[in-house]
């Protein structure tokens, strides 16, 4: 593999199937990106029969250590932006309450501690949603606590919470413009 361009995007996949496959298209549009795959995301990959087929310039980092070793690179300026998409209700809840016991939540926590902007595509954003399951569309009804946690996350420093694929696209485009302006 060629020398990695830094700083880079850090994209976190969690255990939500909500727009999981669509997120891959956004990842492919980013030139320099590492993909952090939680244990739950590995399960979703198997359920949806998907492969992580990305360009060689992208690293794929799996949740294989108790202390999430790959997050140490946040302290060395390797990343300029974190995208957590899609973000499961479990990941959102842990992020809101400061629990960082998975690769996904540890990436979010370390980004915040390093003042690195994060974009979080929360899955539970409305009282009733249609989402794609491995065998088709299903209706889901997020609990009040799930909706409250999404709202709480919106108040976090250096964090942009988006609620749709279009919002995700706009947030990434905005962040790219900020990076180009700074660069």
Q: What attributes does this structure have?
A:
183 residues, alpha/beta, Rossmann fold, 6-stranded parallel β-sheet, two-stranded antiparallel sheet, 6 helices, 36% helix, globular
Report on the structure:
The chain has 6 helices and 8 strands; from the N terminus they run βαβαββααβββαβα. The two termini are 25 Å apart. It has a single domain, classed as Rossmann fold (3-Layer(aba) Sandwich). The chain is of the alpha/beta class. It is globular, with a radius of gyration of 15 Å. Helix 3 runs parallel beside helix 4 and helix 3 crosses helix 5. The strands form 2 sheets. It has a 6-stranded parallel β-sheet with strand order 3-2-1-4-5-8, sandwiched between helices. Strands 6-7 form a two-stranded antiparallel sheet.
Low-confidence stretches: none
CATH architecture: 3-Layer(aba) Sandwich
The total of helices stands at 6
CATH first level: Alpha Beta
CATH topology type = Rossmann fold
The helix-strand sequence is EHEHEEHHEEEHEH
The SS-based structural class is alpha/beta
Strands ordered across the widest β-sheet:
3-2-1-4-5-8
* Separation, N- and C-terminal Cα atoms: 25 Å
């Amino acid at each position: 593999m060629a020398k990695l361009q830094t700083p880079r995007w850090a994209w976190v996949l969690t255990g939500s199937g909500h727009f999981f496959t669509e997120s891959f298209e956004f990842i492919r549009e980013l030139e320099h990106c590492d993909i952090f795959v939680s244990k739950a995301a590995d399960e979703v990959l198997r359920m949806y029969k998907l492969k992580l087929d990305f360009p060689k310039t992208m690293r794929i980092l799996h949740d294989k250590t108790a202390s999430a070793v790959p997050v140490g690179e946040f302290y060395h300026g390797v990343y300029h932006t974190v995208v957590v998409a899609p973000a499961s209700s479990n990941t959102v809840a842990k992020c809101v309450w400061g629990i960082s016991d998975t690769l996904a939540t540890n990436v979010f926590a370390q980004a915040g501690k390093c003042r690195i902007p994060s974009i979080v595509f929360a899955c539970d954003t409305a009282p009733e949603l249609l989402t794609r399951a491995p065998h088709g569309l299903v209706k889901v009804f997020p609990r009040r606590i799930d909706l409250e946690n999404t709202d709480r996350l919106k108040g976090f420093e250096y964090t942009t919470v988006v609620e749709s694929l279009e919002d995700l696209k706009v947030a990434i485009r905005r962040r790219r413009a900020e990076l180009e302006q700074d660069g």
